[in-house]
């Protein structure tokens, strides 16, 4: 009997919306990342280095003009790829503060935001009510309920205060109520990221978020050119979550 040849569908990132370069702690330049993106057939790439309030990794504010100029030159040079400038801004305070100033607004095409360790908090108060409790909750389980409530409020305030397009690795590094965050993300047209380098969102959390008409993106969060477009185990995660590919804005099959 002849075996039916079945074409296996391969999932692929079209637009990698979250990538790092030497402007923060990536290993490759913008030009090298764009070259790699063209080689692996991406139709678009967004350069999104870390926000300014990180003392080691943060993009210095004077570099946004330089990054914009480099990207403008590359966009003129290549007609097979679109290159965007963004920033992975840091959530730095319980009021939903992120480290966005005029340079980011002026030069970036769009803004993403996520929680990271080691940032400089928005205020002295935030050290005590936001940063320290989140560190402490990792070893003191009784604090978990408190920080989940606070972090969820923080994410929601952030989405209402700022025009952000995407939340990177939601709930990673600090716990959140995914249900409440996804509801407000849907209302404010904010994309939730599925990130192969981080544990959240996981399949269970995607299932919860899917109840709302929120969109998702899978991004590599590449810090080297080799990692660009690399989805690692996310195809399995989205299969386990049962999410239709149409809900993921930057993927093709
Ligand atoms: Zn991140
Ligand atoms: Zn990142």
UniProtKB/TrEMBL annotation:
Query: Molecular function (GO) terms listed?
Result: phosphoric ester hydrolase activity; zinc ion binding
SMART domains per the UniProt record, alphabetical: POLIIIAc (SM00481)
Domain Polymerase/histidinol phosphatase N-terminal, which positions? 15-93
Question: Organism's domain of life?
Answer: Bacteria
InterPro entries assigned: PHP_dom, PHP_phosphatase, Pol/His_phosphatase_N, Pol/histidinol_Pase-like
Q: Name one GO cellular component term.
A: cytosol
Cited PANTHER family: PHOSPHATASE YCDX-RELATED
**Protein name (database record):** Putative PHP domain-containing protein
Q: Which organism is it from?
A: Acetobacterium woodii (strain ATCC 29683 / DSM 1030 / JCM 2381 / KCTC 1655 / WB1)
Taxon lineage: Bacteria, Bacillati, Bacillota, Clostridia, Eubacteriales
